[in-house]
Specification:
- This protein is 51% helix and 13% strand.
- It is an alpha/beta fold.
- It has two domains: 188 residues, Glutaredoxin, CATH 3.40.30; 123 residues.
- It has an eight-stranded mixed sheet, with helices on both faces.
- Strand 1, helix 2 and strand 2 form a beta-alpha-beta unit.
- It is elongated and about 70 Å long.
């Protein structure tokens, strides 16, 4: 953190009347060191800000969470420091009200949305984009904003095919580069087809503890959202657990859709990792569906590892 950044934080700390709390998540990723140093400087320069640091074992990315639905996968400095501090203290009314004519439409938003914005601390246009998107997230809690330093996390930028900043992604499907038109973004958010929601958005729904709501959405639309299969076969156990809970809820609303899930998972079964295969068999048993029984019996008869066969035998006990 440069000396000018420290001056900006000190001045902000003296002037702000509403210093919020932030949560910092550190992981095994080596870039956690930069986040740890940011916490140390913020603690020294803005003591009124309550900072809670948590270490999460694993290979996840370090991040800073402000408010309940705004995440920074970035260490704010240079051009991005002032917007970060302004968001932290609630954003000035002149910024929050700048798009008032458009944001009333957000009241019609019926499902969560994940907006990722790639920035660079040297980008002169990124701060306004971040502020505008943050104003939306602060008006509508179903909008989850993730601010990503595309240079610091270059592998994420490469995965999302980001080559310039600011770049805005909605549900990993819609993209804006440069100046984003908020009315257009809001209109797409409000009128999306739920069946096209990305796995990232479904994951956010589950993180919010709304597996039953997700199941209800699928029941009302009469189809299983394709991205659910990404979560049911995800390498992370908590993600699979939330997705399996969704299937169990769906069984209460639309039992006719359960066969679709079983057959789709069975088509993927041979390529799954051993723990995922075991969880899939557990889910088959929980459904107690005739289609599931046929699959479980095939595993018991087949050439599978002890772990998978044990899971199959346990699943059979559910019938």
């Amino acid at each position: 953190m440069m000396g000018n950044d420290e001056k900006i934080i000190s001045e902000w700390a003296r002037e702000t009347n509403n210093p919020s709390s932030i949560r910092v998540f550190l992981t095994n990723d080596s870039r956690s060191d930069a986040f740890r140093e940011f916490v140390r400087r913020m603690t020294n320069l803005a003591s009124a800000v309550h900072i809670k640091t948590k270490y999460e074992a694993g290979d996840g990315l370090p991040e800073i969470r402000i408010h309940s639905n705004i995440t920074y996968q970035a260490v704010p400095h240079n051009q991005e420091l002032r917007p970060f501090l302004e968001i932290l203290s609630g954003l000035p009314d002149k910024i929050k009200n700048r798009h008032l004519a458009d944001t009333h439409v957000l009241e019609k938003l019926g499902m969560p949305a994940v907006i990722k914005v790639y920035i660079s601390p040297e980008c002169p246009f990124c701060p306004q984009t971040v502020q505008s998107l943050a104003s939306l997230a602060m008006r509508q809690e179903m909008i989850h904003l993730v601010v990503i330093d595309g240079m610091m996390f270059s592998e994420k930028a490469a995965d999302d095919r980001v080559s310039s900043v600011p770049t805005v992604l909605l549900d990993d499907q819609f993209r804006w580069t440069g100046n984003v038109q908020l009315p257009e973004l809001i209109d797409i958010m409000v009128n999306r087809d739920p069946a096209q929601l990305s796995s990232e958005t479904l994951k956010q729904i589950l993180y919010d503890g709304k597996a039953a709501d997700l199941a209800r959405m699928m029941a009302e639309w009469g189809k299983v959202f394709p991205s659910l299969y990404d979560l049911l076969t995800h390498t992370e156990w908590p993600v699979r657990l939330g997705a399996m809970a969704t299937v169990e809820y769906l069984g209460e609303y639309r039992k006719d859709l359960i066969a679709d899930i079983i057959n789709a998972l069975w088509a993927l079964f041979e390529d799954l990792d051993e723990p995922v295969k075991a969880d899939t068999l557990y889910l088959f048993g929980e459904t107690a569906h005739p289609e599931a029984r046929l699959k479980i019996e095939a595993v018991i008869r087949g050439a599978y590892s002890d772990l998978v066969k044990e899971a199959a035998n346990d699943a059979m006990n559910a019938f």
